Amino acid sequence: MNQKPPPSNTQDANEDITQDFIRDIINKDLKSGYHTSVVTRFPPEPNGHLHIGHAKAICLNFGIANEFSGQCHLRFDDTNPSKEEQEFVDAIKEDVQWLGFDWGEHLHHTSDYFEQLYSWAEYLINKNMAYIDDLSAIQIREYRGTLREPGKNSPFRDRSIAENLALFRKMRAGEFKNGEKVLRAKIDMASGNINLRDPVIYRIMHAEHPRTGNAWCIYPNYDFAHGQSDAIEKITHSICTIEFEDHRPLYDWFITNLPVPSKPRQYEFARLNLTYTVLSKRRLKQLVSEKYVSGWDDPRMPTISGYRRRGYPAVAIRDFTNRIGISKSNSTIEVQSLEACVREHLNQIALRRMAVLKPLKVVIENYPDGQTEEFEAKNNPNDENSGTRKIQFTREFFIEQDDFMEDPPKKFFRLAPGREVRLRYAYFITCTAVLKNEEKEIVEIRCTYDPETKGGNAPDGRKVKGTIHWVAAPYAIEAEIRQYEHLFTKEIPGENGEFLDDINSESLKILSNCKLESALKNTPIGETIQFERLGYYSADKDTSSSHLIFNQTIELRDTWGKNKRSENA
Ligand code: ATP
Ligand code: MG
């Protein structure tokens, strides 16, 4: 019923082009009738926040479920109570939903299956396919051998079924300390695949579990829990990252040897890596705990919550993961391609506003004091339905310090003594004087305006080369703006040593006393706006009624490479 009709020959050829090897496999399985519907899962371990790599796995698994009218389960892989926390569970759910996906009724936890997994472990013992080992973790590693040398059998490998069963039950009953005993699958200590050299499948861990409390003091490990959980949930295609390729024979060994209710198959795709970014939970955790960033959702973090706070739209992240596609070989994607997606989407949806980040005061000498005019400006020229807003104009306003030069080079088309420029939406102005303080710093610019140029055009047809933005002084809202650069200075952080050595110490710059146009007054937290001529900015959650904060989401154009080049020049 869920099977899609095969593509017809008369369709546009593009529709027949295969998207990727996983969708090809699914199409084949549906066509052959091997499966009649598709069930995938996203199985995070709740020991940290999700990052953009996880977003790739989420978009792939949920995306496939949507495309094939199937289901995607959200399953918390909660088999290690010493590292997992409820905070992470809640954050992961929020992130998946924010990305735009819905698991419906299919929220699962590996811990829901602890009793079943335990009985399958006893099943293996009863088949003489698992045994209790007393070797320590260090000894087990020594006995395991290497890629070149086979392992050695543990001296405890030939315990009787009855003894193994009795010991396993004592393990469960809490009669041993952590590390005293483990349950191992009895496979082959000489296997060319180290994962098959009698892998540990249960370990003792006296720790309280967020969901099962103190019911258990033994926990299954990933390899034993994962495939069997897939089988219980009748997952058809268990999609994971390439490092699990060598675990697939073990996955299949359990599925073949246990009386599981379905026979899922595992497929592997390449992890996402991004330049100027680290994507390992261990490293991200370290950035947080050692306070290199303000938290998991610091806008410089490659976490989903960090991007959200930074102002990236969910649709841009989804689009990015689709565009990069999936493959079987690991590669590193340029972070600029993610940023380009963000820019492209924001250009379509973001409201336009004026903001001055480094204000320089301008006074129009021939404009009446105390007068206010209002101009109507489009909210978004790319969106006809976005309407207009009112912008106030007064005798005193702010422009960007960078938009004025006292002694400009030839190619500088903005404001300078004696030069005329257009104020966006308003008038032509001409600079008549520059006021300085005792330190010879420019503190104010004096100008005249041409009342005939209202709206930005001169009736006599004279042209100006530059248009600059501005914010009327009496109506300006003060704000703090947080400007960001990549968190790392190297394309591959840690490539030549410690990744922390490659941290960009300039990645956050705080600008205070920025001036925003009045329409930005009640910007909802999380809304991303285009500040004209500057870039995209998103209202930060640290905002209070008396202190407005915006995060720089992304510049209008990519200048990272350029800055680096000029620094090196
Ligand atoms: P990390 O290696 O960052 O600690 P993990 O793989 O241990 O992450 P899990 O919570 O186990 O984190 O991951 C859940 C799912 O997300 C897994 O199926 C995993 O393969 C996938 N995943 C994790 N990192 C990436 C990545 N960089 N690219 C694509 N998928 C990823
Ligand atoms: Mg993992």
Structural summary, described in words:
- The chain has 569 residues and is of the alpha/beta class.
- The protein folds into 3 domains: 21-269, Rossmann fold; 359-469, Beta Barrel (Ribosomal Protein L25, Chain P); 477-568, Ribosomal Protein L25, Chain P (Beta Barrel).
- It contains 13 helices and 27 strands.
- It has helices at 21-31, 52-67, 86-98, 114-126, 137-143, 161-172, 222-232, 248-257, 281-289, 304-310, 314-324, 335-349, 560-568, and strands spanning 39-42, 71-76, 107-109, 130-133, 182-185, 200-204, 218-220, 237-241, 265-269, 272-274, 331-333, 351-353, 355-356, 359-364, 373-378, 388-393, 396-400, 420-423, 428-436, 442-450, 467-468, 471-472, 477-484, 508-516, 528-531, 535-539, 548-555.
- A hairpin with a 4-residue loop joins strand 18 (420-423) and strand 19.
- The radius of gyration is 31 Å and the shape is elongated.
- Mean pLDDT is 94; it is low at 1-16 and 564-569.
- Adenosine-5'-triphosphate binds at residues 43-45, 53-54, 56-57, 240-241, 271-272, 279-281.
Task: Give the topology.
Layout: H1 21-31, E1 39-42, H2 52-67, E2 71-76, H3 86-98, E3 107-109, H4 114-126, E4 130-133, H5 137-143, H6 161-172, E5 182-185, E6 200-204, E7 218-220, H7 222-232, E8 237-241, H8 248-257, E9 265-269, E10 272-274, H9 281-289, H10 304-310, H11 314-324, E11 331-333, H12 335-349, E12 351-353, E13 355-356, E14 359-364, E15 373-378, E16 388-393, E17 396-400, E18 420-423, E19 428-436, E20 442-450, E21 467-468, E22 471-472, E23 477-484, E24 508-516, E25 528-531, E26 535-539, E27 548-555, H13 560-568
This protein binds adenosine-5'-triphosphate (ATP) and magnesium ion.
Adenosine-5'-triphosphate is lined by residues 43-45, 53-54, 56-57, 240-241, 271-272, 279-281.
